[in-house]
Design goal:
α8 packs antiparallel against α11. The strands form 3 sheets. The protein has a 5-stranded mixed beta sheet, with helices on both faces. A hairpin with a 5-residue loop joins β6 and β7. It folds into 3 domains: 102 residues, no CATH class; 126 residues, Nucleotidyltransferase, domain 5, CATH 3.30.420.10; 120 residues. It is an alpha/beta fold.
C-alpha cells in the first residue's frame, strides 16, 4: 500500500488516490482511483464549499500521461454534489481535467506542445490518440491562449493577401512591419473583411497606427481610410514595380506578335530577361541586340528603369517632381500599356509619395507569407480556417507558446 501512496503523491491528482493498478495489456495500464481522506468538494454553479456528496456517476476512463512507456488511463467515478447554498445538484468539477473531456489537462498540454514542434498528425500518432481529437484539443488551447493575450500596439502596419486554397479563395494577412510578425488574419479580401479585423481594435489603438503599407487594392484603401484616419497609406513599392513590369511584358508580347520571323526568333525565350535585376554578359548582349532593332521595347525598358529611380530621390518634393515628369512621359510614349499606367499613377500619387514620409515596404510580409505556406504544406492544407489562423499567429506571429502561457 505504501507503494501506491507514493505513486499517488507523484501523480499529484487533487482529491484522489490510487487504489489499484491494472495492466490491461503490454501497451496500456489503468489506474483505478478512489477518494482521498482530505477530499473536498465545491459547487460548480456558485463555488460554495457548503456541499454534500449526493451520489456518484458511472465510472469514467480518461487518458493521462504515459507511464513506464505505456498508455495510461485513469478510472474513477465522479461525485455528484448537492449545494446547501443554492440547492443545485451537479457533477463535481476537477482541477486536473476540463468538464466533458476525455484527457487530463497535463496530457492535453503535452500534446499541444508536441504540435508546436510537429504536425498534429505526427503528434497524434506519437501519443496514439485520434487525429481529430488532437485538432480539437490544440484549437481549444490556442483559443484559450489568445483570449488572455494582448498584442502590442502596431505603428507600421502591413496588409497583403494570400491564397488559402484553389479557386480564388484568399485571406487577408496583417503584419507588424517593425517587428516582422503576423498580428492577424481574416478570410476574404474585401473591404468588409479588412474592416472586420480593424474593428477588433479599439479607437485608441487604431489611432496609433502611423502608416499602412498595402497594394493598390481599393477595398483595403477604403477600409483603412475610414478606420485608421491618422495613418498614411503607403503603396508597397514592389507592388507598384510589378505594374511596370507587367506593362513592359505587354509591350514585348505585342512586338513579338508583329515581328518578322527573324526578329521573332530574337524575342523568343527572352520573357524573364526583361525583368531580371542582374544579367550575365551574354544576357546583356541579347537584350542590347533586341533593343537595337526594336525601338518600342527599348523605350519601354528605359521607362521601367527610369521609374525605379524614383525611390532614390532624397526628398518628397524631389520625388513629386520626378513622378510628375514620369507621368508626362508615359502619356506621350505612344505605348498603350504605359499610357494606361500613366493615368493610374495620377490616382496612386499620394500613396506612392507617402513612402518618402514612411519608408516601409511589405518585403518582410513576403517572407512571412512563405512561412505561412510552409505551415499549410506541413499539414496538407487546413479545413478549419480558424484553426489555421491560430496556427499562423503561433508560428509566424507573437501568440505566446502554451509552455509560456501555462507553465508547469
Amino acid at each position: 500500500m505504501r507503494v501506491l501512496e507514493n505513486i499517488s503523491e507523484l501523480f499529484g491528482i487533487q482529491g484522489m488516490e490510487i487504489e489499484r493498478i491494472v495492466e490491461e495489456d503490454d501497451s496500456s495500464v489503468t489506474l483505478h482511483l478512489g477518494r482521498s481522506e482530505d477530499a473536498q468538494w465545491s459547487c460548480p454553479a456558485c463555488h460554495s464549499l457548503n456541499v454534500i456528496c449526493y451520489d456518484h456517476a458511472p465510472e469514467r476512463q480518461i487518458r493521462d500521461l504515459s507511464i513506464w512507456d505505456r498508455i495510461c488511463r485513469l478510472a474513477f467515478r465522479p461525485a455528484r454534489v448537492k449545494c446547501r447554498a443554492c440547492g443545485a445538484v451537479s457533477t463535481e468539477r476537477l482541477s486536473w481535467m476540463e468538464a466533458n473531456q476525455h484527457q487530463t489537462l497535463r496530457f492535453e498540454r503535452r500534446l499541444v506542445l508536441l504540435c508546436e514542434k510537429m504536425t498534429a498528425k505526427e503528434a497524434s500518432e506519437f501519443e496514439m490518440i485520434d487525429r481529430d481529437a488532437t485538432y480539437r484539443i490544440e484549437r481549444r488551447w490556442l483559443e484559450r491562449v489568445e483570449s488572455g493575450w494582448t498584442p502590442e500596439v502596431v505603428s507600421k502596419l502591413g496588409i497583403d493577401e494570400i491564397a488559402i486554397r484553389k479557386g480564388h479563395n484568399y485571406a487577408t494577412v496583417f503584419y507588424d512591419l517593425a517587428k516582422k510578425e503576423v498580428v492577424g488574419m481574416v478570410e476574404g479580401r474585401k473591404a468588409a473583411d479588412c474592416s472586420k479585423f480593424l474593428k477588433g481594435w479599439d479607437k485608441e489603438r487604431r489611432g496609433k497606427v502611423e502608416a499602412v503599407c498595402m497594394d493598390m487594392w481599393e477595398g483595403y484603401h477604403k477600409s483603412v481610410s475610414k478606420l485608421c484616419p491618422n495613418a498614411s497609406i503607403v503603396f508597397d513599392k514592389f507592388h507598384v514595380s510589378k505594374y511596370f513590369h507587367n506593362a513592359l511584358d505587354k509591350v514585348r508580347q505585342h512586338e513579338q506578335a508583329l515581328a518578322s520571323n527573324e526578329d521573332g526568333k530574337m524575342l523568343k525565350g527572352t520573357r524573364w530577361l526583361w525583368h531580371k535585376p542582374e544579367l550575365s554578359p551574354k544576357q546583356r548582349r541579347t537584350l542590347r541586340g533586341i533593343m537595337a532593332v526594336n525601338k518600342p521595347l527599348f523605350k519601354a525598358y528605359l521607362m521601367v528603369e527610369d521609374f525605379e529611380m524614383l525611390y532614390k530621390c532624397e526628398s518628397i518634393e524631389a520625388a513629386a517632381l520626378y513622378l510628375k515628369d514620369v507621368v508626362r512621359r508615359f502619356r506621350c510614349s505612344h505605348l498603350e500599356p504605359f499610357k494606361k499606367l500613366g493615368k493610374s499613377l495620377r490616382t496612386w500619387r499620394d500613396g506612392i509619395l507617402n513612402y518618402f514620409k514612411h519608408p516601409v515596404s511589405n518585403a518582410a510580409a513576403e517572407g512571412l507569407n512563405n512561412k505561412i505556406k510552409v505551415i499549410k504544406r506541413r499539414s496538407y492544407g487546413f479545413r478549419d480556417f480558424e484553426y489555421f489562423r491560430l496556427k499562423v499567429l503561433q508560428c509566424a506571429g507573437s501568440l505566446p507558446s502554451v509552455a509560456n502561457a501555462y507553465p508547469l
